[in-house]
C-alpha cells in the first residue's frame, strides 16, 4: 500500500496504488488534504478508500451553512412571536390578460396591537420546482412581474397577466412575529374576444341557392361559443358547427360555420354573437349578404319617385280644393240693390263656363296622376 502520487482536485486526474494499477480520482469539487490506504486486489479491482473526515465538498459546506442560517432565522422569528398565533388568508384572484392582477391577502393574529413586518417571502407555483417570486431585504428576484407593494401587507400584484399564470400557488412568509407556511391562493385568468369577422361562400348568392356562412372570433380565454340569429331573431345555432383552436399564447380562436341548402332572403341580415365561457355575450357582428340580381340602387330610386309623386298629388288636390272654395264664395248675392238682367245672365254664363273648365281641369289632373302611378309601378316591377 502507498500514498497517492498525484494531487487531488484535478479534473480527470488519476492516482496510482503500490502495485501500479490505475484508480480514478474523486470529482473535481473534492478538496482533500491527503489520501491513504489505497489497495488493489489481485483481480485488478479497486478496493475501498478511506478518506479523512475533513475532506468534504464546498457545495456541502454551502448547503450546511444555508440550513444553519435558515434554522436560525426561523428560531429568531418564532422567538419574537411571543407565542401568539399568526395566520394568513388569501382570496382567489381573477385577472385579465395584459392587465394587473391583485392577490388580496391578510394576516390573522390573536393580537392586533403590534405591527407585522415582512422579512422574506416565497411564491411557488404548484407543479414547478423553483419559486416564481422571492423577496428578501426589500429585493425581489425571479419573475419581475410579481410585486410586494408593502412590507406591512402580504398582498401581491402580478403585472401584465398571461394565460400561463393561471393556477394554484403556495405562499410562504417570514415576518417579525413568526413564519407562515403552507398557505395557498389561486389565480384565474380571462381574456375578451375581439369583434368577429364574417364571410360567405359563395360571396354572391341567389334566392333559394346554397350558401355557407362563417364567423371567426379570436383573442379570448377560456373557450367560448358562437350563436347565429336572423333578422326575425330566430336562433340557427343548432344548425352550425363550432371549432376551437388554441394558440401558442393559449388564447382561443372560435370558428363557426352555418350552412343553408336553400337560403331565404327574408332572413337577411344575420347576426353572429360571441359568448364567453359563462355564456355571457361579449361582442357580435351583423352579416349583410350580397344578393345576385337585386339592385339596391334601383329600389331606392323607385322609393324616391313614389315619394315625390305622392307629394305632387297632395299639392294638386289642395290647390283644386282651395280654388273651388273661392268660386263658391264669389257666387253669393251682391250687396248692390239693382243688377241688370243682362249682367246677371252674363255672370251666370261665365260661371257655367268656369265650372265646365274646372271640371275639365280636374279630369285632366286625375288622368296625369294616374299615369304617374302606372309609370312608377312599371319601374318597380322592372
UniProtKB/TrEMBL annotation:
Residues 350-360 have a biased composition (Acidic residues). Gene3D superfamilies: Immunoglobulins. The chain crosses the membrane at residues 300-322. It comes from the Eukaryota. GO terms for biological process: cell migration. Residues 372-382 have a biased composition (Basic and acidic residues). Residues 196-288 form the Ig-like domain. GO terms for molecular function: cell-cell adhesion mediator activity; integrin binding; protein heterodimerization activity; protein homodimerization activity. Residues 338-382 are annotated as: Disordered. GO terms for cellular component: cell-cell contact zone; plasma membrane; protein complex involved in cell adhesion. Keywords: Disulfide bond, Membrane, Transmembrane, Transmembrane helix. PROSITE patterns: IG_LIKE (PS50835). PANTHER family: JUNCTIONAL ADHESION MOLECULE 3B, JUNCTIONAL ADHESION MOLECULE C. This is Ig-like domain-containing protein. It comes from Astyanax mexicanus.
